[in-house]
Amino acid sequence: MTTLTWSPEAAMTAQEIDAFLAEKLAARLTSIRPDGYPHATPLWYVWDGEALWFLLGAGVRRRQHIRNLERNPKTSVIIDRDARLEEGGLLNAQGVTIRGRAELSTDEGLQLDIGRRTMRRYFGYVDEALVLGSLEDGKPGKNRVVVKVVPESIRGWDFRKLEGMGVYGVSP
User: Fold this and answer.
1) pLDDT tens across 129-157, in order?
2) In a domain, 1, yes or no
3) Cα distance between residue 167 and residue 128, in whole Å
4) Whose CA is closest to 52, among 31, 79, 70, 33?
5) CA pair distance 67, 99, nearest whole angstrom
6) Is 169 a member of any domain?
7) pLDDT tens-digit map of 10-29
8) Could you tell me if residue 167 is inside a domain?
């Protein structure tokens, strides 16, 4: 697994990547459409230190990203924060990119587990009725597809590490 970026000084360590991925951020999961174009979807995720987990909707109609990943499991995910526009500063950006292959499952127990873990991660608690309702995805039953992405490569960067190094005109 790789953790280098364009600048070794900005690269996150494995521990920094884990801490960053533990924050309440959105991921953009990218799959490849039948016409060859990328298809990016913002999603909530769970990081367990070894894999990213997503719950994709397959209730009323199977979503495009599911069809794409069934056909071609190669994926790229980016989770980032670019506070340069909101907070200012040229070096206020962080992110992690992950490349890997998606493993899809409709196992109902796994849907419940990832649904609960996602709710706990983003809301701080688990409401069983809300979890069960979200798994229905518009029709009765558990109608989500769980996607597991085990990283083949990870790259993490934290531009704040470059402050004072003369990068982008910032002088020491």
Assistant:
1) 988 888 887 777 787 899 999 999 999 99
2) no
3) 49
4) 79
5) 19
6) no
7) 899 999 999 999 999 999 99
8) no
Number of domains in the chain: 1
Q: Cα–Cα distance between 3 and 14 in angstroms, integer?
A: 7
What's 118's domain CATH number?
2.30.110.10
In a domain, 2, yes or no: no
CA pair distance 115, 45, nearest whole angstrom: 10
Instruction: Please give the structure tokens belonging to residue 79.
Output: 């989770």
Confidence of residue 170 (pLDDT cuts 50, 70, 90): very low
Q: Which domain holds residue 89?
A: 8-161
Check pLDDT > 50 for residue 90: yes
Q: SS3 sequence, the chain?
A: CCCCCCCHHHECCHHHHHHHHCCCCCEEEEEECCCCCEEEEEECCEECCCCEEEEEECCCCCCHHHHHHHHCCEEEEEEEEECHHHHCCCCCEEEEEEEEEEEEECCHHHHHHHHHHHHHHHHCCCCHHHHHHHHHCCCCCCCEEEEEEEEEEEEEEEHHHHCCCCHHHCCC
